[in-house]
Fold this protein.
Amino acid sequence: MNEKTRVEDIDRSVYDIRDEEHDAYRMEAGLTPEIIDKLSKEKNDPVWMQQFRLQSLQIYNEMKTPDWGPSLEGLDMEHIATYVRPNSKMQNDWKNVPQDIKDTFERLGIPQAERKSLAGVGAQYDSELVYHNVRREVAEQGVVYTDMESAMKGEYADMVRKYFMKLVTPRDHKFAALHGAVWSGGSFVYVPKGVQVSIPLQSYFRLNAKGAGQFEHTLIIVDEGASLHFIEGCSAPKYNVANLHAGCVELYVKKGAKLRYSTIENWSKNMYNLNTKRALVEEDGVIEWVSGSFGSHVGCLYPMSVLKGDRSRMEFTGVTFAGAGQNLDTGAKVVHIGKDTSSFMNTRSISKSGGISTFRSSVVVEKGAGGAKSSVSCQSLMLDSESRSDTIPAMDIRTRDASIGHEAKIGSISNDAIFYLMSRGMTEEDARALIVSGFADNVSKELPVEYAVEMNNLIRLEMKGSIG
Amino acid sequence: MAEKKQMILNRLPAPTWNWLRVNRTVLDWENENEIDLGAVVRSVQGKENEPLRLEIRGEGEYSRKDVDVAAEPDSAVTIIETFGAEQNLLVRTHLTARRNATIRLVQIQNTQEGSRLVSAVEGECEEGGRIELYQVLAGKGDVYGDNKIELNGDGASFEAETGYLARKQQKVDINLVVNHRGKRTECEINAAGALMDAASKIFRGTIDFKRGASDSVGNEKETVLMLGDDVNNRTVPLILCAEENVVGNHGASIGQLDDETLFYFESRGIGRDVAEKLLARASIERVARLIGDEEAEGAVMNLLDEELGR
Amino acid sequence: MKKELLQVNDLHVRVEEKEILHGVNLSIGKDETHVLMGPNGTGKSTLGYAVTGNPAYEVTEGSIVFDGEDITNLSVNERARKGIFLSFQNPLEVPGVTLSAFIRSALEQKTGSRLRLWDFKKKLAETMRLLNMDESYAERDLNVGFSGGEKKKAEILQMLMLEPKLAILDETDSGLDVDAVRTVSQGVQLYRERVHGSLLIITHSTRILEALHVDKTHVMENGVIVREGGAELVDEINAHGFGGIKAQ
């Protein structure tokens, strides 16, 4: 019997909990203006948002799917219900959350993580936040961490309106337009001037109902001189019906501020992960992306940084692991606009068992972006000859006053290295797993310990059965 | 009556974001007159072959020349194509390197301002076959180079050395795709050049390791010296891989004279302007020396002196 | 008092926010060979870079006077044209530019006129022979793929071809390299015979000085000159190391 399949199934089952559908309400499949209207009313959207959604739907219908990248044929948009609301209303205290929902999150380890000095947890359950708790310390500093819907209607309504989908607009691509029409849930974070948030903020969300789409919107504003580390980690069960994740993350890093955005993406192997992330960085601001992509059937992820202010900086550290049946097209984009800006990309990718991993990047330096520095380094590891690893970088430089470096390497695990480890008593399987973990350390050393551990576990899981 | 059409060339094997405008190049073109240069279809044998020198000038507004060379097993030949176009010239060069044969193709672009040269090179190598491509792009007109090399046989190899100097509003638009199919195939791509004034350049280099090309090696290096205030450089170095046992590397370095190098030159009394000129010449001179043909090398040096002054 | 070729007055030099030289005084006369010694990390190379004018080395106080002219604010290549040469410890690789083209260009900048190719090539080949340097290096890309010893020869070759008034040799790593020692000795000898220029040899090992005639020795410690003397100081250091040197 194929040991690989058995082990994978056992381990994945922790994430494959499928509760009886609590889901009291489901949207009809298919996307018409009427459905968007209904959705908008259900959410008590302000008028501007209702109009925004309808406009976005129109743009969605006009736009074509991209003619490059992985095929999106398996997506059946008509059958994806976009709105599911669970029984419980928003809770501020863990005590009052319904038991079986609590169980689900308990099994995913949230309470423990909460105890381990995380500032707060925004947990999305089928398109809406169920549990939300902002730790007192962080709230006292004036940090606002709430769900998008509340933020849109409360005292930050004007701020939200000012920023919402201005960085990633519905015209950017078809799935951004879709997002604009049907978005639901997500986090709003505002860090006031000068506030250094010492504990990472994090959010979990998962998919439950068959065919439900995930369209959460994250909007983070780090005001002048402030700093924040935000962690996004997610997981979803397996289904037979194609599932789509078309979330959107907009990050505003103001003058002298710093934002680190860490993600471990571990969606189930039937998901289409088409997330759009973009950051706008002002003078002396810094954005750091730390990204581990492991799951999904098809993934298209290219966090983009706009270095608008002078001396703004971007650092991107990523690892992508594409296993059997996966086509992960990941990378990063950066645009240098201000003077003396700098960008660094360090990515590693691993392909195994027929998986396809593509590194895709763009570095654009505008004419006025004098003093720009950019350095991109990508390494790819092929673990067998069934898989694919493609590197598709591009640089467009429009000023002489720039210093741009790029290097890429591709290869396989060195037999000498395996021999050396085995000569010290390791099995071949362990040796390979160790080498691949080591290969991914550019990301694991940037993550908080519990995430690094989860990431190394994922790698070990993926590597099991890699021999024969 | 000349028929207008569009020529689509320089296609990137794996397209990327369309807004980067590097996926392909589309040129307005018309049907061409064929140039009569006598027999240039050759089947070469033996190792001691005189270099084949072709001066291709172009006739009329749109003209075309096809060059076909097959090198029989164990033979070696050098072909030197010098392009002197005044208007629109399309040259298609087809090379077949049979078992253990070597073909060295030297292309010297010495075209007039306002002209457009399209050079399409297709090469295939059988077992142990080798193709070397030397391109000196130092003329005044626009250059579009679409080059595709198939390393079909085991042990086949390819080397490309490109040097370019683009000035004023010149466009240099190159595509180089190397398909590794056989085992133990090797390729090395070196492209270096300088952009001055408002010149623009796209260099797409693709190393494609097909499944089965085990123990193959591909190295690509590009250096671009940006010397003009309105220059535009696009670099797209691709590595596509479906085979585990390969080694692929590529590096690109784009910018102006770096501080350390500038200091070294200045410590010898050589100021920035002179240093930049020296380095701009350097990328072309380097390729010229590698050609290994005195006549061709001399021609290139003269061309450089004309362009840059001594 | 005879006019000195190089006069360094109370020089304070800062690199990356840190002050390395805290008031260095040093003078070198015409046709003299000086040695600058001292323990590692003490600022010796910094002095060499500062005199050459490397912009990364900021002069915060003091002055540098060369051949009667204050050059403290002159650019690197202006100083080079006036006759200051620095042989680098670890010379840069410059792909695309041949050793020959580099030297020719430098010479043309210095004389301000075109060189006759034939004369230049003859002199270059002759000098390379004297240094036991393979002629083929002339057409090789500057320092690319050169071994340590060949890079050293290339630097000394440049010195002999450019004929500076003052040659600063940064030999801080060369102490144990037999070939380097030989090349430098030979080069210095030829330089003195041909050019009668002055030399400042920066080193922390005495090996390299064994075959040379030294006019004056300076010992640097913690960014200042702590002791000066004649050739006998070299022997003292040889015998007792730097610890034995007492500041005066």
Remarks:
- DSSP finds 13 helices and 24 strands in chain A.
- The interface with chain B takes residues 67-68, 358, 360, 362, 367, 380, 382-385, 387-412 of chain A (CB under 8 Å).
- Chain A has two domains: 12-301, 413-468.
